[in-house]
Amino acid sequence: MSPALMLDPTAMAPSAGDFISPSKGSVIASVVKVPSHDAGALSTNGHSKDNEAGDLKASGCVPPCPFTGTKIYTEAQKECDTIRTAHRTLAPTGCTPDFCQSGRMTRINEPRVGRDRPLDEVQQEAVDFLRECRDHDVIQTDHALNERIKEALVQISATALVSTVTDRDGLVSKGLAGGTWYQHPKELEYGLRASWRNARRCIMRSEYEHLALCDLRRVQSSREMARTVAKGMQKAFNRGHILPTVFVFPPRLPGKRGPMIWNSQIMAFAGYRQDDGSILGDPANVDLTERIIEFGWMPPIIKSRWDFLPLVTMAEGDAPYMMELPAELRRTVQITHPRHEQEFRQLGLEWVVAPALSRLGFDIGGNQYTASPFMGWFMDSEIGVRNLADTFRYNALPDVVNALGLSPEPDTPLEDLPEYMHMVALVSRVQICQIEQE
Question: Which DSSP letter does residue 267 get?
């Protein structure tokens, strides 16, 4: 299936848990969380629109599309056919005639990284991926393509084993699970870029051609995982001139967990559960914080909302390793507004300097990369509208309303708030401050 980024929405985990795939895309690689993979805009239900309409009518639970047979429907069918022609294998979206998941952040039954799959499916995905590499001149000649296909099929068969397998339709059985194969750096880089391109939840995927690969497949210990990630993240941050980069550790073998990173993001704040049931810090990281404390981390004596969590990595067959982040990765950006500097200074809102997602899994040509942290850019709305404003995160909006003297009533006419748009801007924007190396 296409390169896919798979993203793990729970992001808790020292367990072997699966990475839910919100963004499977074109045939060969997909990003799934985060997740990773993500991770797609090119996904289909695995059957034609005509069949779908027939299924819906037969089920009696959902009326067929009112545009069936019209010009609009015909054009949509042509677009679907074009996608099928361009991409040999399409991952399912998780939709059924009874349940459409197109608007869901996390889809409940998409393919996941972390599960063994039938040998024939893994081999087919490898072949499709290599052919796509040839289509994009990653592989230069047809002869080289044929040789690569032979090599991949041999390696996949050699590392296959009997296991509980889950096929692309979600059916579980006992069978021969496909193994892994070595992807050349250029092939892997193409797969990562295609995965980002296919990640439907990422607004910055338009920059996929600039994504760089940091190939760490040689790393075999938890300690080296942590150290190489921290060093690489500093280089990718580039003193604020971010170079979007994916750090790829070895793929998981069938029957194995694969390398893992406990943190959902490399740079993230702790969440402390208080005696009264409230949360100090980031509620999204409460369970992770408790696990890391159990593992041996000593939080600051005076806890705050902005305490950075240490990084915990776990290589295949090795014990977890914990390390504090270097100073450059523990910087924060103060949230402010040019017309309300004093009010925002009192609010004391801040955020990390860059997103560094670390519970991502990439599914590329049949290989499942369970540890592949990614550094990119924030969209301002990610911070102001989601991380700080969501009621299940920092829930900062009530404090902002009070600090600025706004009416908390939801039916307040907007014309009574002459600077309403400025208020929205200050909540949904983080200033790009001058972050220079000390």
Answer: S
Give the residue among 25, 7, 199, 19 at the shortest CA–CA distance from 114: 19
Instruction: Report if pTM > 0.70.
Output: yes
- The Cα–Cα gap between 1 and 278 comes to 44
Q: How far apart are CA 152 and CA 156, in angstroms?
A: 6
Please give the structure tokens belonging to residue 63: 């009326």
Long-range CB contacts (< 8 A, 24+ apart) of 310-313?
A: 311/226, 311/229, 311/230, 311/261, 311/263, 311/266, 312/14, 312/226, 312/261, 312/262, 312/263, 313/222, 313/223, 313/225, 313/226, 313/229, 313/259, 313/260, 313/261, 313/262, 313/371
∠ CA 91-19-221, nearest 5°, is 125
- Rounded to whole angstroms, the Cα distance separating 433 from 351 reads 12
The type of residue at 368 is Q
Task: Identify the residue whose tokens are 């280089």.
Answer: 235
What DSSP letter does each residue of 361-403 carry, written as one string?
A: EEEETTEEES---EE----HHIIIIIITTSTTTT--HHHHHHH
Q: Which residues of the chain have pLDDT under 70?
A: 1-73, 88-94, 102-111, 407-438
The b/e string for 81-113 (b: 16+ C-beta within 10 A; e otherwise) is: eebeeebbbbbbbbbebeeebeeeebbebbbbb
Question: Which residue is it, tokens 């523990």?
Answer: 330
Alpha helices in 61-206 (DSSP H): 71-86, 119-135, 142-158, 185-198
Kindly report the number of other CB atoms within 10 A of residue 76's CB atom.
14
Angle at CA 362, nearest 5°, toward 360 and 368?
Answer: 115
Give the CA radius of gyration of the chain.
Answer: 23
Neighbours of 37 (CB within 10 A): 43
| Residue owning tokens 């240490």 | 310
Question: For residue 213, what is the DSSP state?
Answer: E
**Residue that the structure tokens 């208080």 belong to:** 274
For residue 93, the model assigns a pLDDT of 66
Neighbours of 290 (CB within 10 A): 15
Amino acid at 19: F
Task: Look at residue 410 in the predicted model and tell me its pLDDT.
Answer: 61
Q: Give the pLDDT confidence of 127-136 residue by residue, as tens digits.
A: 999 999 999 9
Quick check: 62 and 98 in contact, CB under 8 A? yes
